[in-house]
Amino acid sequence: MTLHRLLTPVALAAALFATAAQAQETYKIAYIDPLSGPFANVGELMLAHVQYAVDDVNAKGGIKGTKLQLLQFDSKLSAQESQSALQAAIDQGAKAIVTGGSGSSVVSALVLAVNRWNQRNPGKELIVMNHSSIDPELTGKQCSFWHFQTDANTAMKMKAIANYIKKTPEVKKVYLLNQDYAHGRQWATYGKQMVGLARPDVQFVGEAFHPIGRVKDFAPYIANIKAAGADSVITGNWGQDMTLLLKAAGDAGYNLRYFNHSAGAVPGTVTAVSQARLGELTWVAEWHPGQADSPKVDALAKAYKAKMGKDFLAPRIDLVPRMLAAAITKAGSTDSAKVAKALEDMTYDSVVGPVRMRAEDHQLLIPQVVNTIAPVDGKTVKVGYEGTNYGFRTDAIYTGNEIAQGTDCKMQRP
User: Fold this and answer.
1) Structural domain contains residue 291
2) Which of 73, 80, 187, 370 is 20 to 30 A from 107 (CA-CA)?
3) What is the pLDDT along the chain (414 residues), one digit of tens a residue?
C-alpha cells in the first residue's frame, strides 16, 4: 500500500509541507576566491572570516530555523576558473555568491556571468556579495541590482588617504608603483588626482606598473624609486607583491612611506614590515587590530581567535553572512529578488557601528580608519601581531558619509 493511501488528505498535506520545509532548511552560499597559488593565504583568511560568521548565525538558530551552508570553490585568481566555479555552485543549489579576494577583473567577470544567468533563469536568481574587490566601476557604470559591496571602494579609500596626507607635510615626493591590472591602475589614478588636489605642493616623481603575482624580486623597482628621489610610494600592492616590495626596500636600506588600501590586513605584511625594519606602511580599513574604543570588535576578535586559532582582521567580511541573514529575515523569504530589495538601503548595526547599503548603487557606507604598521611603544601601539613587536597605530578615522563619493550607476531593476 502506498503512502498516499495510508494518509488522510490533511495528513498528506502536512507531510508534503514538512518535506518542502526540509528541502528549504539550508540556504547555500558559495565562496569563490583564491585557495591556491600566490594569493592562497589571502583566500584562506577571507574564507575563515566567512565560515566563522556562517557558523555563528547557525549557532544562534539560523534564520527562523533555516541554516546557512557554505560551499567552497577555488577561483585560482582566474576569470575563467571563477566562472567554472560559478556553474558548479549553481549546480549545487547556491543562492548567493561571496567573493572579493580574486581582484576586480575576476569579480567583474563573475558579476556579468551572474547577470546573464539571472536574466535567463527567472526564479533561480543569484546574489553576489562582494567583500573586498573595490573597483568603483562595480558600483558605478557596471553596477548591478544583484551585486552588493561591503567594503569602501577605491575612491573612498583614497579620499581617506588624501585627507591624511593633507596633514602630513613630510610627504613631499611620491612615486606610484602598482600591479598592472584594473584596480592597480585605478589606485594610481586616484592617488594622483586626490592627493594632488589635497596637496598641490606634492611632486609625483615617477610611475610604474608590474605583473600581478609574478615579480620575485622588486630590487630593480626599488632602485628606480630611489633614483627618482621619492620619500613615499602610493601602491595598491597586496599579498606577496607587498611583502616582497617591503623586503626589497629593507634589503636596500631605503626608508620609505607606503600608502595602501588594505595590505595591512593580509597575513605576513606585519612580519614583512618588522623584518625590513625600515619604512612605514599606512593603509585604510574599517578597523584595525588593537584599535581603541572598539569593544564590539574586540569581543568578536576574541571569540574568533578562540575558535579559529587565527587573528581577526576584517569586520567587513564577517559582515557579509550577517547582513545576508538580516535581509532574508526582513524579506521573509529566500527568494533572491526579495532579498536583494531588502538589502537595498538597509541600515545594519555592525560591530564597527551603523552602516548603510546605499540603494542607488549598492555601495556600503562604512567607516574607514587610516592606520600605520609601527613598533609597539606602549602608547599609540600597545600590542604586537604575527609574533612581532609591530602593531597598528590609528592615524585618522572617517565616517562612511565623510568619504562617500558620487556615483554614475544607472541601476536596472527587475
Assistant:
1) no
2) 370
3) 444 444 444 444 444 434 444 444 899 999 999 999 988 988 999 999 999 999 999 999 999 889 999 999 999 989 999 999 999 999 999 999 999 988 888 999 999 999 999 999 999 999 999 999 999 999 999 999 999 999 999 999 999 999 999 999 999 999 999 999 888 999 999 999 999 999 999 999 999 999 999 999 999 999 999 999 999 999 999 889 999 999 999 999 999 999 999 888 888 999 999 999 899 999 999 999 999 999 999 999 999 999 999 889 899 999 999 999 999 999 999 999 999 999 999 999 999 999 999 999 999 999 999 999 999 999 999 999 999 999 999 999 999 999 999 999 999 998
Q: Which amino acid is at 409?
A: C
Which distant-in-sequence residues (6+ apart) come within 8 Å of 249 by Cβ?
218, 222, 256, 276, 278, 279
Contact, 277 vs 375, CB < 8 A? Answer: no
The C-alpha torsion from 212 through 116 and 48 to 74, rounded to 10°, is: -60
Domain that holds residue 177: 155-285+367-403
CA dist 109 and 333 (Å) reads 28
Query: Looking at the structure, do residues 306 and 258 belong to the same domain, yes or no?
Result: no
If we measure between CA atoms, which residue out of 51, 60, 14, 56 comes closest to residue 30? 51
CATH number at residue 106: 3.40.50.2300
* Pair 393, 381: CB distance under 8 Å: yes
Q: How far apart are CA 311 and CA 122, in angstroms?
A: 41
Q: Based on the domain organization, do 145 and 159 belong to the same domain? A: no
- Laid out side by side, the sheet with 353-357 consists of 347-350, 353-357, 364-365
Q: Do 140 and 18 fall within a single domain?
A: yes
Q: Give the three cell numbers for residue 282.
A: 599606512
Domain membership flag for residue 411: no
In a domain, 360, yes or no: yes
Q: Are residues 300 and 391 in the same domain?
A: no
| Block residue for cell numbers 541573514 | 325
CA-CA distance, 162 to 369, in Å (whole number)?
13
Assess if residue 262 is contained within a domain. Answer: yes
| Same-domain pairing of 261 and 301 | no
**Which amino acid would we find at residue 380?**
T
